Amino acid sequence: MSVSRRQAIVGTGTASLGFVLSGAVGSVFSGTASAAEPFHFHGYGELVPDPAKIVDLPAGFTYTVVSRAGVDTLPTGEKLPGAPDGTFAFPGKKNNHSILVRNHELSPGAANPVPHLPGLEYDPGAAGGTTTVVLDGDKLISQVASLAGTVRNCAGGNTPWGTWLSCEETELTPATNARLTKNHGYVFEVDPYGRLHDTEAVPLKALGRYPHEAIAVDPKTGILYLTEDAGSPYGLLYRFLPAKPLGGPGSLRAGGKLQALKAAGASDLSVFTELGTTLAVTWVDVPDPDATTTSVRKQFADGAVTHVPKAEGIFWDRTRAYIVSSYAKAGSAAAGVHEGQVWEFNPRKSTIELVVRIAPGGRFDGPDNITVSPYGGTIVLCEDGDGENYLIVVGDDGTPYPLARNAASDSEWAGATFSPDSKWLYANIQGDGLTVAITGPWRRK
Questions:
Q1: Which of 79, 164, 254, 407 could form a disulfide with 190 if both were Cys (CB 3.0 to 4.6 A apart)?
Q2: Are 354 and 277 within 8 A, CB to CB?
Q3: Alpha carbon 234 to its chain's center
Q4: Tell me: the pLDDT tens digits for 266-296?
Q5: Rg for the chain, CA atoms, rounded
Q6: Which of 397, 389, 442, 436 is nearest to 415 (CA)?
Q7: What pLDDT band is residue 377 in, cutting at 50, 70 and 90?
Q8: Which residues pair with 260 in a beta bridge?
Q9: At 139, is the secondary structure helix, strand, or coil?
Q10: Which tops the pLDDT comparison, 50 or 395?
């Protein structure tokens, strides 16, 4: 992120504290508490400086560096690739084990690419992909390549059938990058349990070819919701109606219909500042999902769909999805200005509601990846700002609190994901090539 940072959060009420929160989300953050009960979660306290100058945490919390890019060696002899990004933790085959599928956001020509192994490769000219990591708490058991030959694997999402959908954040083709032999901008399915038995990596072309960011899957319907991080114009929000919903590993290859979101009365979501703003949504068919001649987001007439500046993370929690818009800067093409929004999508009501907004001017900015804590449904955001970067938790009253600070560099946080037993929060410090395991008194105070 190359924009200036250090802006304070301004506004009235809870907005002056950094985040503003609608009543609907307050009930989520309050866990099982009724609306009459007082708010009680106010973060975990201020951060304690780390003597090792890697991760500052609240008192009572500890971390372990579980892997280091360029230092750790894979079983095939190559060094662990860098730029770890979106990640999800699946249950391991042994008690308390976690299996992480971890993206590597590497561009063509990057040093130390994901190894191109039989059955894993898509394009021999591309450096990105995924690694699969087995952990026992904060103890590394193994890490191996699991997808290779892709470009800028940024975020993605887990499926109800226990696979990871790894997203390429690019639109590169052999015509725009001579290293490549195939078109890019696809989603690839990675199975941590080895059920696909592919002879090569398979792009899920029906999900569209565009700068994918993240995916969430409704476990009741099997419908996919996708974000696009793009500019000129800004990206869109999508849904994918699979031909074989909830069909298991490989089922998305059967195809389906890709549609883009249209929010009533809105051509650009950044213009909204009022918490609780709720917009009815409809869905518009994408004419050419594979972007044969025209980028997907450019295939619509003005006003036909709704654009989102820096559409980033999306995460499914129970009956809804939370969607992040990382920022909309003054002087940009965005209709409004903010340092972060979170929208709640309700598929039953076909609405989106603005539930978190970071106004310019405070400690935090640039939320990117998102997850939800198993302890009371607290949102956890990975910051990709300009300057120091934090993992952030959101209090019941809407105040943002620091959960962790990258004390080693200004690199972004990415890929926050809780272990299946809820004891560990795994996260990546992308530029430093670190994956860390954080634990502590998670229960809400």
A1: 164
A2: yes
A3: 17
A4: 999 999 999 899 999 999 999 999 999 999 9
A5: 20
A6: 436
A7: confident
A8: 238, 284
A9: strand
A10: 50
Question: Longest C-alpha distance within the chain, in Å?
Answer: 62
Cα dihedral value 90, 95, 96, 99, nearest 10: -30
pLDDT tens column, 98-131: 999 999 999 999 999 999 999 999 999 999 999 9
| % of the chain with per-residue pLDDT over 70 | 90
Query: pLDDT per residue over 205-236, tens digit each?
Result: 999 999 999 999 999 999 999 999 999 999 99
d(Cα 184, Cα 339) in Å, to the nearest integer?
Answer: 30
Q: What are phi and psi of 76, to 5 degrees?
A: -85, 0
Residue 415: exposure state from Cβ atoms within 10 A (0-12, 13-18, ≥19): buried
Nearest to 437 by CA among 157, 184, 61, 122: 61
Query: pLDDT band at 33, cuts 50/70/90?
Result: very low
Write out the two tokens for 378.
Answer: 């607290």
381 near 341, Cβ under 8 Å? no
- For residue 111, what are the contacts with CB-CB under 8 A and spacing of at least 6? 82
Mean pLDDT estimate for the chain: 91
Q: Which residues contact 358 (CB under 8 A, 6 or more apart)?
A: 9, 18, 19, 338, 339, 340, 341, 364, 365, 367, 400
Statement: residue 27 has pLDDT above 70: no
Structure tokens of 284?
Answer: 């518009």
CB 392, CB 401: distance < 8 Å: yes
Residue identified by tokens 């972007």 is 291
Q: What is the C-alpha to C-alpha distance for residues 156 and 103, in angstroms, rounded to an integer?
A: 8
Kindly list the distances between the CA atom of residue 386 and the CA atoms of 2, 159, 332, in Å, as whole numbers in the listed order: 7, 32, 16
Nearest to residue 202, comparing CAs of 147, 242, 162?
A: 147
Alpha carbon distance 206, 289 (integer Å)? 7
Query: How many angstroms separate the CA atoms of 94 and 188, rounded?
Result: 26
The Cα–Cα gap between 206 and 179 comes to 25
Q: Is the Cα dihedral 396, 400, 402, 404 positive or negative?
A: positive
